[in-house]
Amino acid sequence: MKQLSIIIVLLAPLFLSNVCFSQVIADAGTDRAFCSSDWEEASIGGNPSAIGGTEPYSYAWSAEYKYAGRTYTASHMLVDTTVANPVFSSYFHDSAVFHLTVTDSKDSIAYDSVKVRFSEYIICLGDCRDEISIGDSAKLGHCIVGGIPPFQYSWTPEESISDPTSESPWVKPKSTTLYELVLTDSIGCQTQFYCKVWVDTLGSDFAPIGSKWYYGYAENPLGGPEFGYLLVESVRDTVIDEHIARVLTKTYYASNGSSHDRGYEFVYTEENKVYYIKDQRSFLLYDFTAETGDTLNFRETFGGSYSSDTTFTMVVDSTNFIWVDGMELKRIHLRDIEGRWDLYNTHIEKLGNIPYMFPQIDLWCDAGCYNPLRCYSDHRIDYKFGYYECDELRTGIYEQHLTNRVRISPNPTSNVVNFFFEHPNYTNSVLQLFSLDGNLVSEIVVWDQNVSVDISGYKPGVYFYNWIITENEVEAGKFVVE
Fold first, then answer.
1. pLDDT tens digits, 119-144
2. What is the DSSP code string of 33-73?
3. Number of DSSP helices (H) and strands (E) in the chain, helices first
């Protein structure tokens, strides 16, 4: 026992000298990785950041980080570079090395360093979407960069997904579905990404739910300025006679600001042909498979028989392709071979008819009062035709008259159309001629009571004219070019 006491007495001074007079040691902590979203709670340094030596200690953190052509120091990235465990003033891209210098009260100096990395995700701009017909499949993807691999993927909803833990799984939804991806990296940092798959339950892309057509509305069956507009909108699906059909509402907006419900229409698609259901019968509305020389039978339009069984025949004069909002669409030009008014003459794939959409006869002015399509939009297309705004109401601008003060001859015509103005203020008035698609084809300042217009270069069809007598007075009408 005496020997043990002697040993303790001899070792105690040695132990105390090692503690009190040892070299100071700096501890910058272990290399760390933080989520960029948690940067406000992130700090560096050991626990503690200095031992040994003689307290108190002074701390100095330094760093040099280069990004986008600029150099950043520790003072740019840390709130205080003179404390033992500084916090960050913001997060930074990639990684940086921070150096710690510890000085004790005896001016002994120690050094250490730590590497810090922030896990940051960058998600591309724009929507992730795919469009399929019912029964088809699509492959989900994402455009996320950053994070610290390896990653874990979790897609929802899991129904119809081949593997919800795959980076790019296959899906086969029965209806339009928004898929969410939760991406988790190796340190638990997460981000979300969304991808929408549009399912065309009709088997084609015509009249997707939410699509809208704005047609001009003349409020004068003989033509003239577009005072109001008629809105056609695809609102939902339904089943009629075993056909999955789209329900389209029609609303007329008058120049006085009032609105009028014009009822419903029902359309369905088979093999890129569009049909509409009326009087418990199906009528061809559009055939986007038609080629030059084909003949197509349509339901009788306004101006003909009021029998729902009556149809008329048109021939395809030509077809071509146009670019509409980044998509190549087929355009079909038709001609009424029975020589009647050619109001049903231009069909564009996905959009429909330019003059008016339905050959409606029980609400006669839905066809007779149309001016051409102003605008069309759906989840992919946002396209404007002509010079009127989509929902513009031209209230109180003109006082319209029928054309009893304008005589036209010949009508129909093929080479020249003559206008005779029976109004004392014909001088310095303006005569405007419009094609059926709403384009201004000619504008003439009137100086003589008789005006002849060469229309030999005009395409066959119906044309409108406005004779602007004064700012508030317009004569309006139509003529036909054969």
1. 999 888 777 888 877 677 899 988 89
2. EEEGGGGGG-B---SSSEESSSSPPEEEEEEEEEETTEEEE
3. 3, 36
- The closest of 109, 96, 12 to 59, measured between CA atoms, is 109
Look up the CATH number of the domain holding residue 151: 2.60.40.10
- Sheet strands side by side (includes 152-156): 129-133, 190-200, 177-184, 152-156
Task: Answer whether residue 205 is part of any domain.
Answer: no
Instruction: State which H helix or E strand residue 348 sits in.
Output: strand 346-348
Residue 261, number of CB atoms within 10 A of its CB: 9
Neighbours of 7 (CB within 10 A): 10
| Domain shared by 331 and 419, yes or no | no
- Give domain status of residue 35, yes or no: yes
Three-class SS state of 141:
coil
**Rounded to an integer, what distance in angstroms lies between the CA atom of residue 331 and that of residue 314?**
15
Q: How far apart are CA 218 and CA 215, in angstroms?
A: 10
Q: pLDDT tens across 85-102, in order? A: 999 998 888 889 999 999
Ranges in the chain, pLDDT < 70 = 1-21, 134, 200-205, 218-226, 301-309, 338-344, 359-371, 387, 394-404, 436-439, 470-472
Same-domain check for residues 235 and 348:
yes
**Cβ-contact 350, 206 below 8 angstroms:** yes
For residues 195 and 140, the answer to whether their CB atoms sit within 8 Å is yes
CA distances (Å), origin 300, targets 266, 268, 367: 17, 19, 11
Residues 161 and 108 in one domain: no
Residue tagged 């014909």 (tokens): 426
Q: Is residue 18 part of a domain?
A: no
Residue 390: inside a domain: no
Tally of domains in the chain:
4
Residue whose token pair is 């129904």: 159
Sign of dihedral through CA atoms 252, 258, 261, 262? negative
* Interacting residues of 377 by C-beta distance below 8 A, sequence separation 6+: 211, 212, 383
CB 58 within 8 A of CB 83: no
Q: What residue type is 321 in one-letter code?
A: F
| 404-418: pLDDT as tens digits | 578 888 888 888 999
Nearest to 99 by CA among 71, 60, 72: 60
| Structural domain boundaries enclosing 247 | 212-384
| Residue type at position 35 | C
DSSP state of 83: S
**Domain termination site, one of 384, 418, 442:** 384
Which of 384, 407, 442 is the endpoint of a domain? 384
Alpha helices in 272-371 (DSSP H): 365-368
Which residues touch 152 (CB under 8 Å, ≥6 apart)?
165, 183, 184, 185
